[in-house]
Structure formats: C-alpha cells, structure tokens
Amino acid sequence: MNIYIRALTIIAAIAAIAGAGAFISTKRATGAAEAQSSVVIAFVDSEEILEAFPQAVRVNMELSELRKKSEESLREQITAKFGTGDIAALPASSQIEVQQMVEKADEDYQKEMERLRQQKWTPVVDAVNSVIQQVGVEFKAQVVLEREVVLHGGIDLTDEVIKKLPK
Known about the structure:
Number of helices: 6
Number of strands: 3
CATH topology: Protein Binding, DinI Protein, Chain A
Helix content: over 70%
CATH class: Alpha Beta
Shape: elongated
C-alpha cells in the first residue's frame, strides 16, 4: 500500500504546489500580506483514508492474494520439475533453469499486477481523490497536502473525507 500512498502524496504535492503557486501569484497583484492571510491549507492522511475505505481494503487483499498464489504456483512448478524445493541442493544448470523460471514468473506477476492496478486500483484512487477535492472545496482550502509533508498548521480533513467515502 505504501507505493500507492507515495503516489498519492506526490500527486497531491504537485497539485498543491501548482495550485498554490497560481493562487498566490494572482494574489500578489493585490498584496503579499493579503495572499498569505487568505490561503487555506489543509491536509489528509492517505494511509488512514485507504485503511478506512472498504473498496481499497478489498483491492489490497486481492493484490496480496495474487502475490501469494504466484509464489505458491512457482514453488509447485519447481518442485514438480526438479523433485525438490531446495534450490541450493540442485546442480548449477538446474539452478540457472530455476532462475529463468523465477524471472518468467515475476514477469507474469508484474503484468497481472499492472492489469489489476489499472482495473481495480485506479477507480479507488479516483474515488478517494474526488472526495478529497470535494471536502477541500467545502472547507475552502486552496491547498490540500498529504499529512507527511505538513510540519505545522493546516486543517486536517482526514475524518471528513472518511465520512464521505462510498461504503
């Protein structure tokens, strides 16, 4: 899940910086002090939001299950082909073959993971981002950041976002 949180953090930070830059640059024409006092900054904890969102939990479980099945399938293939799961006990030529099997299984796993991410994770991220944007507008926040990048201040919108997520 950390990869997704990092991606959300980066997206949120880029959007926030771009949005804040545009907002502040338009406000500079009327005075820097006014721009500083009128910018509302908020933040969310994406990890907490995703842990509370049933769709995200289901998708993470599916992705985890795919990993387990892939590893189990590879172990079964190796044992069936070589009669043992102890790779270190195999001759060098067989170890090379096992390495090729591992690389092929990893390639297949990565393709399936990417397909599932696109099919199932993208709608989850879109739903969360939509609710974050909606709550940010309701709180009149010009900038919504990830909690990890906020050192001090701001409005925590996490609980409000969780309340508004689809069940």
